[in-house]
Amino acid sequence: MATVAEVRTRVRIPLRLGDDLAVDAEAVTFHGLADGLEHLAFVLGEPGPVPLVRMHSECLTGDVFGSARCDCGPQLRESVARISEAGGYLLYLRQEGRGIGLYNKLDAYALQDGGLDTYEANAALGLPEDARDYTAAAQMLTALGVRRLDLLSNNPDKAAQLTAHGLDVRDRVRTGVFATETNVRYLRAKVEHTGHSLVLPAGFGHAGLAS
């Protein structure tokens, strides 16, 4: 574990995600995060001794502008709803483009338009397939008093990294599958490259188009 982080500020924020999702949350900021970035934790519902936790990497295009090239926006809304009901924490991590940054992500999109998948495009740019490090996330959870948790994620690496930092991931809870004709190739690459535990709908052919 890196150096200990501390809670900096807590402030109430009413969240309105679309027309049908309105929840009250407490936003938490931190001192001493290992990567120096301004990550946020949102306290949702009434966290119990084993809270439900989602580590959501920032996606400006999907979260804010509703891009259909990924499933980030729908995952964010689903996470807020499910955690609000179960009680827990949404960690909003400033890791755009799996940690490569916004401009590099858009450069990778251009390569994907030429036929590469999301991981191949990163490699073609000389960048890691996934540059994310969850040390800061582990610090945040520790500062919030979380030692044991259920992790809302299809990504086995997130659970492995938290476990390596001494946290007890009791269960990894799958998110929904938000497949469309425009993002199914992206989702399939997650399964093939990094072992994401999601099952794509049978109606999508291997080329990424509904069949």
Automatic annotation (TrEMBL):
Enzyme Commission code(s) on record: 3.5.4.25
Keyword Glycoprotein found: no
GO MF term (any one): zinc ion binding
Group of enzyme by EC: hydrolase
Active site: 130, 132
A Pfam family that the UniProt record links to this protein: GTP_cyclohydro2
Keyword Protein biosynthesis: no
Gene Ontology CC annotation, any one: cytosol
Cofactor: Zn(2+)
Binding-site residues, GTP: 54-58, 75, 96-98, 118, 153, 158
GO terms classed as biological process: riboflavin biosynthetic process
Keywords for the protein's UniProt record, in alphabetical order: GTP-binding, Hydrolase, Metal-binding, Nucleotide-binding, Riboflavin biosynthesis, Zinc
Pathway: Cofactor biosynthesis; riboflavin biosynthesis; 5-amino-6-(D-ribitylamino)uracil from GTP: step 1/4
Role summary: Catalyzes the conversion of GTP to 2,5-diamino-6-ribosylamino-4(3H)-pyrimidinone 5'-phosphate (DARP), formate and pyrophosphate.
Family of the protein in this entry: Belongs to the GTP cyclohydrolase II family.
NCBIfam families: PRK00393.1 (NF001591)
Protein name as catalogued: GTP cyclohydrolase-2
Species assigned in the record: Amycolatopsis carbonis
Gene that specifies this protein: ribA
